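Pipeline run #58 for the internal structure catalog. This entry was flagged by the ingest filter as a single-chain record with no existing model, so it goes straight to prediction. Upstream metadata was stripped on purpose; only the residue string is passed forward. Reviewer on rotation: M.T. Logging verbosity set to normal.
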Amino acid sequence: MSVPSETLPAGVDQKAKEAYFTASQGQLIWARFKGNRTAMIAAWALVLMIMMGIFAPFLSPYDPTIAGRDENYENGAPQLPKFWDENGFSFRPFIYATERERSIKTNFRWVVTENREKRLYMRFFVEGWEYRILRVIPGDLHLFGVDGDGKIHLFGTDASGKDIFSRTLHAIWTSLAVGTLGVLISFVLALIIGGVAGYFGGWIDSVLQMVTDAIRTVPSIPLFMALAAFMPDHWSSETRFFFISIILGLIGWPTLARRIRTHLLTERTQEYVLAAELCGASAGHVIRRHLLPSFTSYIIVDLMISFPYMVRSETALSFIGLGLKDPVNSLGALMQNVSKADVLLNYQWYFIPVIFFVALVLAFVFVGDGLRDAADPYSDTKK
């Protein structure tokens, strides 16, 4: 396909022009995507959060489950490392040791106070609890810790003494994993059902559209309430994880399937499709090699935006108690705690996972918009 020379940036030399005209579709999309500053920033933020999720066990100083809780620092405030105080300057970052005692001033409730005379210095690459990255790579090395038996909680602790920093990193990975599995299921179903309905039309299209409309009309909240009642209490967290991912995937495909069907209904009569059919190409080959690639930009953006939809769905289900629950660490499970008035008044650090959730969703949205514009060869003419 020829590309008008006026679409090239002004001032490019002949070598750059030749590279532009001989570039593949993927190279053109990447070149246009790099020119979108907002999308690039979102992409780097998304990559950073994905890497944080993958290497969460290494980055986490403590086990995020019940086994790793700090019984002496329950509902503890975030501990920010310092380099100096009234006792002088230190090249090594440090925090203060804490003491837990009952006070008559608080009706003998437990009170945690700092001992500003006792410093706990941070150490890096320390040995700790054992883990497996991606359930495959074993290890017990962690990025940071503190001297002695003390503990450092960058984001504070919850009511049971579990480290919120460690829980947040593991929650990012759990929510991404749920979203990935759900998106893959819905994506495959949308491509198959939408492609078949749009290419063949007729009674096949009518039957598939009735199925699609039936799925679209199912109310999500009553459905999930019924599924929550169906799930046995003895199911493990892994079983719940896969069950919720599959359900999200099975109900998330109709929108993309309808878009694919509409596009294929208009494209199936084009000359390049008729030429492929006359050459003996099968229906599956025509759909896979000719029709779907012409819909690439819309498929990409829908796929990217489906990720935050799945993450939001898992978060909403866990938030209302129908999804993943403790001891599973997911963004929805962590956000359950922020619905209490006591948290809003006294334990504002519980909202830190909410910031990561918002950043994750926005990153996916901006990257999806950037990919859509980069994959659309007429995006410049629309502005």
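catalog note: The longest strand covers residues 109-133.
catalog note: Strands lie at 82-85, 88-103, 109-133, 137-146.
status: ready for reviewer M.T.
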